[in-house]
Design goal:
Helix content: 25-40%
Strand content: 15-25%
Bound molecules: zinc ion
Structural class: alpha/beta
Distance between the termini: 62 Å
CATH class of the largest domain: Alpha Beta
CATH architecture of the largest domain: 3-Layer(aba) Sandwich
Shape: elongated
Largest sheet: 8 strands, mixed
Number of strands: 18
Radius of gyration: 25 Å
Number of domains: 2
Length: 539
């Protein structure tokens, strides 16, 4: 008898282990079916797209359009029936800025219009100015000396030689199976994206350059769009600080690569080149605070627990911020619309956050997390970090969590363009893998197949991840994100892919729904330990 009972127990244990753990995770296929139907047959995602990109446009943090976008999203979320839709202030951020007018043309040796954009947070030219061009190329602060007292009243053609190559690779890309298998591999110690030290070095060189050119009383500074970005696509960001009292006095423009290269060649040949510029930029000092748009669908039996989804609402200013990050914003709005349209009664409260200040360092989401869930000590002795949130700076010290932190099951983010979802970055949280494996299964036919333990950075899920809340960004097809739209003048509505955005909306809705209905909260990984302060340089 004992032997038979022992044999029975063994067989149960074997069966338990034999059944893959993901199959034990419940998936509500009936609701998934309804979500797919609503998302593919009654989608409003492109209505949100034209409302945000065409009727409002660029949304630089601090600009009047940013405020319009905050109010428009709040009103849209209210209209779809969400509760407590409101704007949550953060900051002080600093000065607002928007370009009103820009025109540039060569007047000698040839007369021709030039494709240029004003760099954010730089002043205008105070009317039409004309000046001779001079080439300035510096790698390091000390290189400025050779130009001292030689630039007054001139237009500086600034930066390294322009590298124009024919487009040999298709700018459009979807991840192949091999690509996805590669993404699925975890590479210990490899951090993706531009290292923070490199970002700080570039920022310092920009500061030094602004200082030098202001002292030299140049008319304006013109650099070129990033290397290999030809064809009239211009990638442009900021040229100065948005902080009060730190405004640069030098007008700055970014020019199409080919046109800049022509001027550089002429200067190389010791030919005189004269340009005529007229730039009108406005600074706004009426309100130093900025805003996140927040709204929710109240939960039921677990309403004090929360599932969050979000994306950054702000953008750069040369295009209309369609793929970065209008795409993320509209799929999150669509996810909330689908849940309301299906009259879903979630167990946990579902809350959406549309952040501003992401392009300036994840500011809107960091402040939100600091105000609600946890923070690290501030680094006010560091002039660059004074008054700024420090969640991403481990050398700032340990994280102190607030009671609400324990109530958030997860945060889901989208910020990699218009391309459809192919999987999830698990941010080294192995214990959610079997859960997501199960939730991903109903979308295999839509191309979602891949989980990776890798971290991905540079966007708002990091603010939540830093305080120990499970926070995830989805793996997406690149489409033209890196080749054409990411921070360029061509980041516009027409570069969005409606069917891909519907797929993203359906999958995000489903993951959020399952998280809201699951008996347990999603499992967590430990909060990262602080780094000693002096290890700043290679954090
Ligand atoms: Zn972005």
């Amino acid at each position: 008898m004992k032997k038979r009972f022992a044999a029975y127990v063994c067989s149960v244990v074997i069966v338990l282990f034999a059944v893959p753990s993901w199959s034990q995770e419940k998936v509500d296929l009936e609701t998934i079916t309804r979500i797919r139907y609503e998302g593919f047959h009654n989608s409003k995602v492109m209505d949100f797209a034209t409302g945000l990109m065409d009727s409002i446009g660029e949304r630089l943090t601090g600009s009047p359009n940013m405020k319009r976008a905050n109010e428009w999203t709040r009103d849209q979320l209210t209209a779809m029936g969400l509760s407590n839709a409101h704007l949550e202030a953060w900051g002080p951020f600093g000065r607002g800025w928007a370009n009103q007018y820009v025109n540039a043309r060569m007047t000698s040796p040839d007369i021709t219009p030039l494709i240029v954009y004003a760099k954010a947070w730089t002043p205008g030219t105070n009317g039409v100015v004309t000046g001779k061009c001079v080439r300035v190329n510096v790698e390091d602060k000390k290189d400025f000396e050779k130009y001292r007292r030689k630039l007054a009243g001139m237009i500086v053609i600034f930066g390294p030689d322009g590298d124009v190559k024919p487009i040999t690779e298709a700018p459009f890309k979807r991840e192949s199976d091999d690509d996805l298998a590669k993404i699925g591999e975890y590479e210990p110690g490899i951090e993706h994206g531009v290292p923070p030290a490199e970002i700080r070095k570039r920022r310092q060189l920009m500061k030094d350059a602004n200082q030098f050119f202001a002292e030299e009383k140049v008319l304006a500074v013109i650099d070129h769009s990033r290397q290999n970005s030809g064809g009239g696509t211009v990638f442009v960001q900021s040229g100065g600080s948005y902080k009060i009292g730190e405004t640069t006095t030098v007008p700055q423009l970014t020019m199409a690569l080919e046109q800049w290269a022509r001027i550089a060649r002429l200067l190389q040949q010791k030919k005189d080149v004269t340009l005529e510029l007229n730039v009108v930029n406005n600074f706004y000092d009426d309100d130093p605070m900025q805003y996140d748009t927040i709204a929710e669908i109240p939960g039921t039996d677990k309403k004090d627990e929360v599932v969050m989804l979000g994306a950054h609402l702000d953008s750069w200013h040369a295009g209309t911020g369609a793929t970065d990050n209008g795409a993320g914003t509209i799929v999150m709005m669509e996810a909330m619309r689908i849940l309301k349209a299906l009259d879903i009664k979630p167990r946990r409260t579902i809350r959406i956050g549309l952040w501003s200040g992401e392009e300036q360092g994840l500011l809107g989401s960091q402040y939100y997390v600091e105000q609600h869930f946890g923070s690290r000590p501030h680094m006010d002795d560091d002039p660059d970090m004074k008054g700024q949130p420090t969640l991403l700076r481990r050398q700032a010290g340990p994280v102190t969590v607030k009671p609400e932190q324990a109530k958030v099951s997860a945060y889901f983010n989208v910020d990699n363009g218009t391309g459809k979802i192919r999987g999830v970055y698990l941010q080294e949280n192995e214990s959610v893998a079997p859960i997501f494996e199960a939730w991903m299964k109903p979308f295999k036919d839509l191309g979602m197949t891949t989980l990776t333990m890798r971290n991905t950075g540079g966007t708002d899920h990091q603010s939540f991840d830093a305080v120990g809340i499970p926070a995830f960004q989805f793996i997406q097809d690149p489409i033209e994100y890196e080749t054409r739209t990411h921070h360029s003048n061509m980041d516009v509505y027409d570069r969005l892919l409606p069917e891909d955005l519907k797929q993203i909306s359906v999958i995000v809705t489903s993951f959020v729904y399952e998280t809201a209905m699951r008996e347990q909260m999603l499992p967590r990984k430990p909060i990262e330990k602080p780094l000693p302060r002096e290890e700043k340089k290679d954090e």
